[in-house]
Amino acid sequence: MSGVLTGELDVDRLAERRLHLYGVSNRLRSPAQRAATSVRLSPTLEAPTATATVYVINQKGIATIAVEASGLPAPRPGERYILWLSGAHGSYAVGSIQVSRTGWATAILRSPHTTWPGTRISILATPRMSMTGRTRLLVRGTL
Q1: For residue 51, what are the CA distances in angstroms to 62, 74, 108, 137?
Q2: Number of structural domains in the chain
Q3: Can you give the residue range of the structural domain that contains 63?
Q4: Is residue 72 situated within a structural domain?
Q5: Tell me, what CATH number does 137's domain have?
Q6: Which pLDDT value is given to residue 21?
Q7: Exposed (0-12), middle (13-18) or buried (19+): which is 113, by Cβ within 10 Å?
Q8: DSSP H or E segment with residue 18
């Protein structure tokens, strides 16, 4: 270390370089690019071989969500799989997902709310007919 404890900092230049290098700004993106995003969901211990990609398009206050998943375990008797969102509008199920015998699933769902960076997205295994029972977290990610 040089022993220097103070110095000048050009905050504007720092922000300009940080935004340029890491791409964290939406300033240069078109409205269509800002409205669309995707996230890869990570497996959990409940489904260690599972993976999923979620594509989100926000338009006119509604989010269209496309899900593509693989490696999901077969639902247990009495279970269903749902896409779950947690964000600024609370936590809620967007819809059910049908899984093939080989663990593949695709779905296009609509959310009554737009989604924004920081929204958590999960695929859960939940009891089909009641609110009692164990819910299993299979894959998860954050926009």
Answers
A1: 25, 14, 17, 12
A2: 1
A3: 31-142
A4: yes
A5: 2.60.40.200
A6: 39
A7: middle
A8: helix 11-22
Confirm if 141 and 38 have CB atoms less than 8 A apart.
Answer: no
Strand, helix or coil at 12? helix
The mean pLDDT value for 123-139 works out to 83
Report the alpha-carbon distance of residue 106 to residue 95 in Å, rounded: 12
Tokens of 64: 């269209």
Has residue 101 been placed in a domain? Answer: yes
Q: Would 15 be classed as within a structural domain?
A: no
Whether residue 130 lies inside any domain: the answer is: yes
Please tell me the distance from the alpha carbon of residue 77 to that of residue 127, in angstroms, as a whole number: 9
The percentage of residues in the chain with a pLDDT greater than 70, rounded to a whole number, is 73
Question: What CA–CA distance (Å, rounded) separates 117 from 41?
Answer: 14
pLDDT for the residue numbered 42:
93
